[in-house]
Amino acid sequence: MALFQSNNPVLKQSVFDKAPHIAGETMTIRGTVNKMSFMLLLLMAAAVFSWGEFYRNSGSVMPLAFGGAIGGFILALVIIFKKEWSAYLAPAYAIAEGLFLGAISAMFETKWPGIVMQSVGLTFGTFIAMLILYRTGVIRATERFKSIVMTATLGIGIFYLIAIVLRMFNIEMPLIHSSGTFGIIFSLVVVAIAALNLIMDFDMIEQGALQGAPKYFEWYASFGLMVTLVWLYLEILRLMSKLNRR
């Protein structure tokens, strides 16, 4: 089985193969957990700030939302191509995503009170459940499993890209926004695929530690895991909004 293989584009085997190693400094699971915890704290702090700004002055929060989204995207691209900078840019990415998520979450909360806490709870509940399933061996990151999840994730990405292009011409993709039966089924499938991405990330982190990946990959792996968690949260938030509209 090829090591370090993940369907998360941030965490590919080739990334580890090409990484320059620093003597005496290698990746550990504990180090990755510590860095991921720190990044989550940064994300939550930034989210609380933009959430508060929304309720103080809703008009001023849009620059935070767009700035966070665009800034996060740019930082993600830089991190992917400059892995050695992860220790400096991954925390900045967490802050940018926090600003974006806080603003978006506040908008959803205004329409459907209680939806954010439910979505956050479901996101972390899913994370813990998938970690247990991975650690107990109930779900294994086999080559067949990886291939299926990778194909499904790529398909979702292409579908969303097409939807963005069509929206420029005022054409909506009903499955994405519809609260009908098929719209909810679509969201459930996407949430499931996002959750399965966590299995791939856990496997990559474990294999990276076993194979002695360079120390800065603790930051890089934490960044990759956060990308998946942000996606999972947004999809759960979308699903909950659909259920609330029924």
TrEMBL record:
InterPro entries: BaxI_1-like (IPR010539). The keyword Glycoprotein does not apply. Keywords: Membrane, Transmembrane, Transmembrane helix. The chain crosses the membrane at residues 36-54, 61-81, 87-108, 115-136, 148-169, 181-199, 219-237. It comes from the Bacteria. It holds the Pfam family BaxI_1. This is Uncharacterized membrane protein, YccA/Bax inhibitor family.
